[in-house]
Write a sequence for this structure.
């Protein structure tokens, strides 16, 4: 069992500074016991060559193109090979394995492909870079940008020497108010902040009334007192099935009826992590923040009618409110 090993998916749109951030991190003592997997969309693995210049760390290349689109079994094989080789060498488990994705990758399908690795006990999280100089323009044309930002536990603003952080920070907050946003010009401090595990917070985010991304809605779901534990689980399963690719992120707390211990629930895309007990925080309020694309509160209530669940818009654009057929 490898409870201490993190799997960090490093995402971000083309040219947003993923490789530079990773190289800065790997140059720090904090990065000891890190393995790296680099996935390039092109046939020439430029990013892998750049990362390899940083030292002799364990590294694997995936040269099959965008890992979220094809040959995802190669990723499972590569992760297993890195872990098994480490064990054969008699070394302790890696502290972390970092997958640097192609700029065209969407985190959700990649994380779903890792399900065969569940017995290894990897802790999975997403770090996404956000180019302060171009993110707003890119987000208007490329759905990959919103998918990468919405999946992240940590969003790192880059290219701050070319632009102020204000517009990009507003974009990141509008797409994913659940993420920790790193705004730091010092490269060493930025790298440390990016790869430092984010603390679990019981506070629900403050959501502004408008959005910088008209296709993204931030909703809140709460369960009535009549909802059983099975009702809660069934609703979350139905949510993933109904929304499909339109479900970007879920995070919040549910409380089994009669229990004093709330459970942390998280999902990237339609992939839910096992609920995590929070015994030290008995007063956490129950509720789920649901981030969707092209799907508003009215459409979700219409597609998943239930007297046991209340769905409210914390923030949504009028463009997201029209009913959408289930996928």
């Amino acid at each position: 069992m490898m409870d201490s090993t993190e799997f960090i998916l490093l995402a971000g749109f083309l040219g947003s500074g993923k490789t530079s951030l990773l190289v800065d991190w790997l140059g720090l003592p904090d990065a000891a016991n890190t393995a790296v997997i680099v996935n390039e969309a092109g046939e020439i693995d430029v990013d892998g060559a750049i990362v390899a210049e940083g030292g002799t760390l364990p590294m694997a290349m995936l040269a099959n193109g965008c890992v979220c689109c094809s040959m995802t079994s190669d990723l499972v094989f590569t992760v297993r090979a890195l872990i098994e080789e480490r064990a054969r060498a008699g070394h302790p488990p890696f502290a972390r394995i970092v997958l640097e994705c192609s700029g065209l990758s969407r985190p959700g399908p990649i994380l779903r492909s890792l399900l065969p690795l569940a017995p290894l006990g990897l802790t999975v999280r997403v770090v996404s870079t956000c180019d302060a100089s171009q993110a707003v323009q890119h987000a208007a044309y490329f759905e990959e940008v919103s998918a990468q930002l919405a999946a992240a536990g940590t969003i790192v603003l880059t290219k701050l020497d070319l632009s102020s952080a204000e517009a990009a920070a507003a974009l990141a907050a509008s797409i994913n108010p659940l993420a920790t946003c790193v705004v730091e010009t010092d490269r060493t401090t930025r790298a440390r902040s990016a790869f430092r595990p984010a603390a679990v917070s019981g506070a629900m985010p403050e959501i502004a009334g408008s959005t910088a991304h008209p296709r993204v809605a931030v909703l809140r779901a709460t369960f009535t007192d009549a909802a059983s534990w099975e009702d809660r689980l069934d609703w979350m399963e139905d949510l993933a099935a109904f929304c499909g690719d339109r479900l970007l992120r879920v995070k919040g707390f549910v409380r089994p009826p009669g229990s004093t211990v709330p459970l942390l629930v998280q999902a990237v895309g339609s992939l839910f992590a096992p609920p995590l007990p929070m015994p030290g925080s008995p007063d956490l309020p129950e509720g789920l923040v649901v981030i969707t694309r092209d799907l508003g509160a009215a459409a979700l209530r219409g597609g998943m009618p239930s007297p046991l669940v209340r769905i409210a818009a914390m923030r949504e654009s009028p463009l997201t409110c029209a009913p959408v057929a289930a996928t």
In short: The first helix runs from residue 18 to 26. The chain has a mean pLDDT of 80. The radius of gyration is 20 Å. The chain has ten helices and 14 strands.
